[in-house]
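For practice. Supply one:
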Amino acid sequence: MTRKKNGFWAFWFSLLPGAGEMYMGFMKQGVSIMGVFWLLIFLAAILNMGPVLFILPILWCYSFFNVHNIRGMPDEEFYALEDDYAFHLDKFLPLERWSRRQNTIAAAVLIFLGASMLWQYMVGYLEWLLPSPFYWMLMDDVPQMIIGVFLICGGLMLIRGKKRELDQIEDKGQEGI
């Protein structure tokens, strides 16, 4: 059973996203917030995509105020609060119902991350082989172009999937007439 903690320590731990939730006894919530926070920093550094970092202050504020909202709850609400993943990640990734499509998406993400890591490794060798202007164009533009294409394809897949779902609902509605 989770019990209320010292307000002084709750404040200090709340300064690091996820740590305050873990200090309060909500491990799933804290680990998921901290994982997303550090994953965003990692992705921004590895993929050279600084604009992704605009999400960090939002995540930091969410975590900070979440800890203080939990700390300020009346005792009966606090003790009734269950530890759940932040952002309800268990609903987005229901591992017990992992489908072939989700497996394909996870594989594509892993291949993409592996390719980006390999790209970073191979860049040093390309500098020796390519003329300087072409090398810098390749370094600066190609990774972001690939990521842009990847994001556009992902968005199109989401739109296409929603359209199919709406078409199926419409077909079932017409069958009932």
